[in-house]
């Protein structure tokens, strides 16, 4: 599999931002992820480069929490957002906070980063069926939480 760096850069950034909640830190972690990926040339050309890239990003995010105090999440919205979209984003973010970390991560990889079940399976080391089942359950839980907050009918 050939790895398209431009395509993956934004996805890794989104992943790091999701994990840290800090745009500047996510940018630094994304750059560090690619530096480490390319400095380790022996593995980058073998096996599963996408899974390796996400593994590096995940470990860097974990290390960032160990080394620094967690900052309050800042929500950046463009000025042209309408009130309804802002409320939806806030409600989704609050609902996601109530979910387990593993469920949030699956939803991020599947829907925000638009990875296939097969790609997520390679990244997480789980079977495709398990990823599909867990993603479906996490999405149902998110919908239920959103309904409980009276955001959806």
List keywords for this structure.
globular; single chain; Arc Repressor Mutant, subunit A; mainly alpha; 2 domains; 8 helices; 153 residues; 73% helix
Structural features, described:
- There is one protein chain.
- The relative contact order is 0.11.
- This protein has eight helices and no strands.
- The chain folds into two domains: 1-74; 82-153, Arc Repressor Mutant, subunit A.
- By secondary structure, it is mainly alpha-helical.
- It is globular.
- Helix 1 runs antiparallel to helix 6.
- It has helices at 5-20, 23-39, 41-44, 49-67, 83-97, 101-112, 117-124, 128-148.
- The model is unreliable at 69-75 (pLDDT under 50).
The gist of it:
This protein has 153 residues and is mainly alpha-helical.
Structural class: mainly alpha
Q: How many H/I helices?
A: 8
The figure for the number of domains is 2
Element order: H for helix, E for strand? HHHHHHHH
Unreliable parts: 69-75
For the sheet with most strands, the description reads: none
Number of strands: 0
Radius of gyration: 16 Å
Give helix % range: over 70%
Q: What is the mean pLDDT?
A: 78
Any chance you could write out the topology, listing elements then pairs?
Blueprint (H helix, E strand, L loop, with lengths): L4 H16 L2 H17 L1 H4 L4 H19 L15 H15 L3 H12 L4 H8 L3 H21 L5
Helix pairs in contact: 1-2, 1-4, 1-6, 2-4, 4-7, 6-8, 7-8
């Amino acid at each position: 599999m050939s790895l398209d760096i431009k395509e993956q850069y934004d996805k890794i950034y989104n992943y790091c931002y999701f994990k840290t909640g800090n745009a500047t830190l996510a940018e630094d972690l994304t750059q560090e992820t690619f530096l480490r990926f390319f400095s380790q040339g022996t593995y980058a050309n073998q096996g599963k480069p996408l899974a390796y890239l996400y593994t590096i990003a995940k470990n860097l995010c974990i290390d960032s929490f160990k080394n620094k105090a967690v900052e309050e999440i800042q929500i950046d919205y463009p000025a042209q957002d309408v009130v309804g979209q802002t409320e939806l984003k806030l409600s989704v973010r609050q609902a996601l906070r109530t979910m387990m970390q593993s469920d949030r991560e699956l939803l991020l990889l599947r829907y925000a980063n638009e990875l296939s079940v097969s790609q997520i399976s390679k990244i997480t080391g789980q079977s495709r069926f398990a990823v599909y089942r867990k993603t479906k359950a996490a999405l149902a839980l998110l919908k239920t939480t959103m309904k409980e907050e009276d955001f959806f009918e």
